[in-house]
Amino acid sequence: MASRRRGGSAMTGWAVRSRWSGAVLASTLLVGLLGGCTAASKRDGSGDGRPSGAAVPAYGRTDVNPQPRSRLREGGTLTLPLYRWPAQFNVHHVDGASDEMSAISGMLEPRLFARDAKGVPHPVPDYLRSAAVTATTPRTVVTYRLHPEARWSDGTPLGWRDFAAQWQALGRGDDRYRIADPSGYEDIASVRPGADDHEVRVTFEEPFADWQRLFTPLYPAAAFGTPGRFNQGWQDGTPVTAGPFRIGERDVTARTLTLVPDPAWWGTRPRLDRVVFRTLDPTAAVHAFLNKEIDAVNAAAADVYERLRDARDTDIRTGSAWDQIQVVLNGAAGPLRDPEVRRAVLRAIDRQALADVAGEGLPVGVPLLGNHFFMTNQPGYTDHSAGSGYDPEEAARILDRRGWRRDGADGVRSKDGRPLRLRFVVSQSTNRLGLDLSQLIQQMLRQAGFDVRIEKVPADDYGPQYLNRGNFDLVISRYIGLSYPSDLHAFYRPTDGEQIYANYGRISSPRLDALLREAGRTLDEGRRTRLYSQADALIWELAHDVLLYQRPQVLAVREGLANYGVPGLGDIDFGAVGWER
């Protein structure tokens, strides 16, 4: 599901802007809560942000074991799990837009800005000497001063042509480029050289508040400048790099990806000798961690946390991140094309019960979310879910009004001879928690008269063959790391044929699109927050999705691993990651 930014199945290891790396939830817990869910009393479902257990970590809290370079030993290997074998290394392509691929690309390609624990972006000095708004009239101009030693692996210096090629691919409306997100790039009027070869001037047709998120990662013009290079040139590898690491080995049989320090890197050499990514399903990843075959694994499920909290040589790290779980609704086909039927789905799902399942037994709280743009512990958060909460009687009334009647003994509603049937697509690598939540949702919707069929599909096909093609009615998604609000425009943007951006449910409206464009171009922070607030209220009104909860950050890490863990709203600097002496 759901990265960068990127729905998909939050439980599968594949997500829009993210991978799910949670683990097993005990079946006894499911049984205990299931009765409470299906027989729960009516709630207003206003999403008050109540934690289901422990307290929610404070805004910007991190847990990475920060250590200076002098306290780290030279060399060593870090082994991490992947939950889907990477096939598209271009994170700006719709098939590559995921959190895990963003992390890998950030090690291989230029990352101009990095965010701190509170999500504030700062220039990365290995690439930028400076970057600032240098003019506001008649148009906004951002001037980038590049590090003079920054070079691509083919020997070409980073320069304005790389910026121009990325703008042309993402911002010019050329449908031949299968892009994930044009926002920000579409507001650029020109990209030109500055005072010398190391300066780039980007002129905006309209101001863009989150300009620091653009050109990160930056890709080379030589391997990005045509639709063919953009779409196919980054499949199964990276033709050109400019990061502290390069690909050392890509073993298709063992499904491992090994990154090693690039000897041509002009910055401070990484402490690690190699970073190895192993493709594992979530259950296998837990076993691999306990067997000391990998060095970190998600522990954000009750039984896994219980198994790992006291494991030898293990450090449990918790914190606060931009991380949400939601159910994506396909509004382009089937019964959910009707927005009223989507509203019935919203009313039939007990979101608090699902948050309780996710948070049971964890050391951090799992609050409901009532806002798509801001987390409950983040400035700007306002709950707009009132009127969309759990109310099975209202769900029944909505379906009655739309002509879906309970006629048969099985309780499934039908209309014009068609059953009210939905396909809930999950990956075969979905972990137990994902299956438990899917089954809970299935039973809740069954109470309202939906016939929900859970369909497992191959993990490698889940994104390109199902999610991207709208080949589903329901999926669970995880979105992580979207601390720039404009990052989310792609999830609600009107689609155009195969150009879906990240709007996998294909649900939008001209008003919503206009609000998000205006918010992205508004420099005044207070007014911008109010515009996102209006947009969020409209997303609930459209029944675009079923927003569930703020996912907990609980990570089991090998003891002695430094500068790695839960970075708050920030980014992990893999060049600084290493093992304590």
From TrEMBL:
<feature type="domain" description="Solute-binding protein family 5">
    <location>
        <begin position="134"/>
        <end position="491"/>
    </location>
</feature>
<dbReference type="InterPro" id="IPR039424">
    <property type="entry name" value="SBP_5"/>
</dbReference>
<dbReference type="Pfam" id="PF00496">
    <property type="entry name" value="SBP_bac_5"/>
</dbReference>
<dbReference type="InterPro" id="IPR030678">
    <property type="entry name" value="Peptide/Ni-bd"/>
</dbReference>
<feature type="region of interest" description="Disordered">
    <location>
        <begin position="40"/>
        <end position="71"/>
    </location>
</feature>
<protein>
    <submittedName>
        <fullName>ABC transporter substrate-binding protein</fullName>
    </submittedName>
</protein>
<dbReference type="InterPro" id="IPR000914">
    <property type="entry name" value="SBP_5_dom"/>
</dbReference>
